Write a sequence for this structure.
């Protein structure tokens, strides 16, 4: 089969059983596949390295959005339970990737640290690890999009950013829609 003989890919592709494969299924298939890929080819370090990158990226992303970097926030960001997030944070802290500090109080009159609540930050070592992970991610993107025009790559990246922004809006309950646009697009 030549590329011109291949069926067009997109919304409405049919499987052998007649089911339609929509863009949502393609998106989730892509996420499942790439969520299992790691930075290292060594089996003994791959899993740990992947978990360290996962938790550091979660904390870095939360921080960039101005969101709290508590254990509960990390758990919600990654989609795991609080105890799993706590273990990930502790492992990354022991590896020097993260540091935890008492959270600043909300008191405007006397700013203090509340030892009962902790926030987490990515260390210099963690930022270096993230930089390496991001180089790998960009290499993979380049390989996956070989043959694409710069415009197509840019448009795809913009669409993914829109999806991520919308995901965060839905997760926080802030949809960014006005009443008029919500009525027009139920």
């Amino acid at each position: 089969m030549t590329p011109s003989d291949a069926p067009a890919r997109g919304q409405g592709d049919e499987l052998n059983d007649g089911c339609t494969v929509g863009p949502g299924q393609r998106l989730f298939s892509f996420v499942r596949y790439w969520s299992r890929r790691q930075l290292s080819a060594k089996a003994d370090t791959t899993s740990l390295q992947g978990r360290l990158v996962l938790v550091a990226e979660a904390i870095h992303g939360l921080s960039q959005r101005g969101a709290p970097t508590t254990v509960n926030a990390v758990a919600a960001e990654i989609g795991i339970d609080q105890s799993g997030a706590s273990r990930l944070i502790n492992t990354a802290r022991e590896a020097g990737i993260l540091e935890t500090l008492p959270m600043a109080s909300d008191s405007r009159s006397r700013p203090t640290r509340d030892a009962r609540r902790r926030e987490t930050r990515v260390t210099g070592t963690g930022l270096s690890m993230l930089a390496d992970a991001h180089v790998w991610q960009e290499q993979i993107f380049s390989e996956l999009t070989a043959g694409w025009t710069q415009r197509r790559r840019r448009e795809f990246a913009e669409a993914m950013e829109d999806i991520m922004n919308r995901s965060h809006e839905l997760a926080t309950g802030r949809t960014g829609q006005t009443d008029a646009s919500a009525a027009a697009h139920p």
Notes: The helical segments are 23-35, 43-64, 71-78, 82-94, 124-144, 150-172, 179-184. Strands lie at 13-14, 20-21, 98-104, 113-122. The chain is about 55% helix and 10% strand.
